[in-house]
Please model this.
Amino acid sequence: MSTAVALDGPAGAGKSSIAKRAAKELGFIYVDTGALYRTIGLAATRAKVDPVDSPEVDALLEKIKVELTFNENGEQIVLLDGEDVSGEIRTPEASMTASKISAIPKVRAYLLDLQRDMAKTNDVIMDGRDIGTVVLPDAQVKIFLTASPEARAGRRYKELIEKGMSVKYEDILSDVIERDYNDTHRKTAPLKAAEDSVTVDTTELDFEQSVEAVISVIKEKI
Ligand code: DC
Model:
């Protein structure tokens, strides 16, 4: 039987970079489920469809094809109608559209099987918001990774500046706060720690310490 690690938590807690490294060390596949919501958000933006619960979004879901694949380095690639959109989904605008569109129950249902299928045949570390609560409720390990909004905004700011984007810390912080609010207040699968999860707070931890904390929780459980 394959092993599943559910890694949930708010935006910018370091889930993806920590999960990537932990997956490499453990020989697991890293699945970034946020990329799937971002891809549907991008499809809506391209089709000029408002990311709210509407017949237009339903019709869009009927038309598009979202796929997950991996390149030769084991990195996740997300395809929208066969096109690699992995880079295009990484902007602050795409984050906000993803946050809005992810509140729609039909969007969440649309992505459920795709996520579950990944865990059926592979040992995975899957990062998201509802992996331990909804997608993989039987995951052997459930971790809720969090940090203060200021620490998370500071890290995201640094990341975007390093990529050459021109952004303001205050804007990133208000985005983080708004996305936290959207993610925790939506009716379907809101962000919350699974009852049987272990919380890892990385506010005071650097990257290496965070990786170590996550790996030690995983090793304890499997
Ligand atoms: O992890 P991320 O920042 O790439 O996620 C983008 C948005 O998608 C985020 O605002 C919440 C949503 N999301 C979700 O609702 N459920 C998931 N499993 C993953 C992401």
